[in-house]
Design goal:
isomerase activity; manganese; binds D-allose; metal ion binding; two-stranded antiparallel sheet; Sugar isomerase; binds zinc ion; Xyl_isomerase-like_sf; TIM Barrel
Length: about 425
């Protein structure tokens, strides 16, 4: 998008924005401090989320979807140009084919994007692969299958190194579908040994993120089924191994904010896959179902990271993991980034001093009032101001529509474009 489109759009909305921003500045003393944090905060967009997703019952293409990695980078560059908060990309191998890492790195840099965690894939059989992952990968009873999966992960590290990524996310579909199918201890030991081999290949400045998930595709047991199991692996592996929290990967009603708080306390929280869900791993727009939960998670993050003196922007891997069945994926991602920025801002607005006192005094009502006051504060003008100062659009979604971006992408790429990943 040309720069003057953003400028024109911003001019049109400036007076209205200023009025709302002046109001919030008059109400709160530390708005500038909040803005300086928002300016630094960036989210990674998953390369697999910029095309239409689908379910096993079907997929309905929106058209104009990226056909290769270069086009995915272009689309994420567009998001970043609009909101200036999507400055990273998370790749998935082999869904993303990197033909020339030098050129890919340069292209990403052109759009001011860096590479966040690389994702390996041992949950599907790939063409030409010798062994099948039908009964697991790193947990498999057959060492040759495990070895194949280990080598794939090491290959992903190599590819990531060439792009300047500094982390590897491992999500395993490993587990069992029926009672008796698996010896749990042996599956754990095999997985641990496999992870140790991958860990040994990890560069010094890299992190390994171990993502857990309660169920699916296996429906009886998951070999990295919850944060306890992920933490066991991470602790046994060493200082470079961390737990990754995907918000959709818990059993119903889990207290995710408490999990986050304790992992952070143990220096074992690696990062996030943000999304929202109503039932399971729904991969819906962040904040669309449980915005209060998203706020409470950020409340723990801000409190916990501040207690440790960890920089919010660089301390964790901030990634989105989403899938879009009925929305334009780019519009949905703009909504997700906005929801995350709002939750983060609200968490920064919590009167932490007052909350600590209320907690010490067991003033339960006051504790709730303090949190809900922050949650119910309309902080949209603060997020908008931070975005404007970074050169983004006042209203990214509105400008995306005004500019008819999807129509332009369909004209360039065609209306029958294929799915990326799941
Ligand atoms: C799967 O449920 C996990 O969320 C993983 O993060 C997965 O690799 C990603 O969603 C791509 O499918
Ligand atoms: Zn995930
Ligand atoms: Zn998932
Ligand atoms: Zn998910």
């Amino acid at each position: 998008m040309e720069k003057h489109h953003i400028e024109l759009h911003n001019e049109k909305l400036q007076a209205d924005h200023q009025r709302r921003f002046d109001f919030i500045v008059s109400e709160y003393a530390h708005v500038e401090e909040v803005i300086s944090k928002l300016i630094k905060f960036q989210l990674a967009i998953p390369s697999w989320a910029i095309g239409t997703g689908g379910t096993r019952f079907g997929r309905f293409s929106i058209g104009g979807e990226p056909r290769n990695l270069e086009e995915k980078i272009y689309d994420i560059g567009l998001l970043h140009q609009l909101n200036r908060a999507s400055g990273a990309i998370s790749l998935h191998i082999p869904w993303d084919e990197i033909n020339n890492s030098h050129a890919i790195k340069a292209l990403a840099a052109h759009y001011d994007l860096h590479f966040d965690a690389m994702n390996s894939n041992t949950f599907q059989d790939q063409q030409g692969q010798v062994y099948s992952y039908k009964f697991g990968s790193l947990q498999h009873v057959n060492k040759a299958v495990r070895q194949q999966a280990i080598e794939h992960n090491i290959e992903v590290i190599h590819q990531g190194k060439a792009l300047g990524s500094e982390s590897l996310t491992i999500w395993l579909a490993d587990g069992s579908c029926f009672p008796g199918q698996l010896n749990f201890r042996r599956a754990f030991q095999n997985t641990l040994e496999s992870l140790q081999e991958i860990y040994a290949a990890l560069p010094d400045n890299w992190k390994m993120f171990i993502e857990y998930k309660a169920f699916e595709p296996n429906f009886y047991s998951a070999t990295v089924g919850d944060w306890g199991q992920s933490l066991l692996y991470a602790n046994k592996l060493g200082a470079k191994a961390y737990t990754l929290v995907d918000l959709g990967h818990h059993l119903p009603n889990a207290n995710i904010e408490q999990i986050v708080s304790l992992l952070l306390m143990e220096d074992k929280l690696g990062g996030f896959h943000f999304n929202d869900s109503r039932y399971g791993d729904d991969d819906l727009t962040a904040g669309c179902m449980k915005p209060y939960q998203l706020f409470l998670i950020f409340n723990e993050l801000v409190e916990g990271m501040d207690a440790k003196g960890t920089d919010h922007a660089t301390g964790l891997g901030w990634m989105i993991d989403a899938s879009h069945n009925v929305k334009d994926p780019l519009e949905d991602l703009l909504q997700s980034v906005e929801a995350i920025m709002l939750a983060y801002t609200q968490a920064l607005m919590v009167d932490r001093h007052a909350l600590t006192i209320a907690q010490q005094e067991n003033d339960v009502v006051r504790c709730q009032e303090i949190l809900q006051h922050a949650f119910r504060t309309d902080v949209r003008a603060i997020v908008q101001e931070a975005r404007l100062r970074k050169g983004g659009a006042a209203q990214p979604l509105a400008l995306y529509r005004e500019q008819q971006i999807r129509k332009k992408l369909i004209n360039q790429r065609g209306s029958k474009t294929v799915a990326i990943g799941l």
